[in-house]
C-alpha cells in the first residue's frame, strides 16, 4: 500500500472514529494522506546528501529500497555480489515502511499477512527470502476480521467450516451450496498451486522458463496426487479466476461479491484481473484446517528491518537520502547512476530498478529505450491513489474484542473497486501493543487504490482549498464503519 508519494498530507487534528457502538474518544493525533503510485526515485525526497558515504561503486546498484528492491539486493549479497541500494527517502521500505510520531509507530502500507510461519516452497515468498538471509519475523496469529457489509456486520473467520455459518445467516442456503461447490472444485488444484510458489507465478510464457525446470518434480508429484480431473483443471492456473467462477455457473450475488472482495484484498483487482493460481494459493492458506493469519510483531517495519539486517549481514550496503536522477547507459549497457548531487555511482555488472515502470522510463536516456517497453509503459494503466488516515487514540472505553482488521463495503452494486466504497481499517496495536504508548492504540484506515488522483492535481498543499478537499474526501474515513 502506498504512502509518502507525490501528494502526502501531514496535518494533524483530533478525530473520533467509531467501531460499532463503541466510540473511540480523545484522539491524540491523526495524519491524513493521499498517495499515488509509490516512487523510489524522489516523489518525496529526503534532504540530498552532498557527499556519498562509502565506495561509489558496486557490482549491482539497486534503485529503491521497497520490498522488491531489498529482496533482490539481499539475495544478491547472499550469493557474494557487492550490492548497493540507493533510496531517496530517509527511511527504507518504500510503500511498506513504518514511521514514528510521538511514540506511536504506524504502518504506511500492508497490514494483512499469512504464511510467515510456513516452511519450504509453500511459505510466504518474503519468508523464503528472509530464511535465505538467516532472518526470522516473530508474528502474532489470529483467525478473523470484522466485516461491515450491506447484508450485516459479523466476525468473519477463516477455516474450512466457519464461513458456512456466516453464509447461512447473512446470505442464503444457495450461497452455502455455491461456496461448497467452489471449494470442491478448486481445492484439488491447490496441490499444483502450492507446488508453483507465488515467486514464480507470472501471466505470460516466461513462467515456463522460471518454473518448469525448477519445480517440475513437485508439479509432477502434485498432478499424480490430484488425479486426471485435478490435473486437467490445473491448466486453468494461469487464467483469470473469474473463468473458474463462470465455468462453475456460480450466480449467487453474495458469493460473486465475496470472491471479488477477496481478490481485491489480495491483489487490488477483482476476480477477472487476478490469476487463478494466486487465488487458489490463498484459498489453500485461508480455508484449510488449522489455518491462521499473522501480523509481524513490531509492525510491518519489522519485515523491512529484517531485510536490511540480512542485506548488511552479507556485506550489502544501503544509502538513504540518495536520490537517483538518471541511469547512465554506455554502449547499450547500464554502467551506473547519477545522483541528484551530481555524483556518479558505478555499477560494474548491473543496475536494478525497484522504481515503477513509469519512473524507470524517466530515468533512462530516451534513445536507449526499446519501443516495445515504451509502448507497454504507455498502455499499462496506473492504479488510482490511496487515501490514508493514521490515528493514535486512547484505548480507554474501547471494546476489548476490537480486533485487528475491519473491512467496510458500502455498496456491492458499485463494485469493490469503486471510489469511496471499500474502507480497510487496521488496529495493529491490538496484537502488538508496543506500537503505541501504554493505554493507547494506533489505527490505519485507507481507501485501497480507489481515490481518483486527478481530483488532487494542481492544488497548493498549503491552500485553504486543498485543506477543504482533504476534509471532504477523508470524511468517510473519519466515520467508518
UniProtKB/TrEMBL annotation:
SUPFAM superfamilies: FAD/NAD(P)-binding domain (SSF51905)
Molecular function GO terms recorded: oxidoreductase activity
Chain segments annotated as transmembrane: none
Domain Amine oxidase: 67-463
Annotated coiled-coil segments of the chain: none
Any single GO BP term: carotenoid metabolic process
Protein name, per record: Amine oxidase domain-containing protein
Species assigned in the record: Prunus persica
Taxonomic placement: Eukaryota, Viridiplantae, Streptophyta, Embryophyta, Tracheophyta
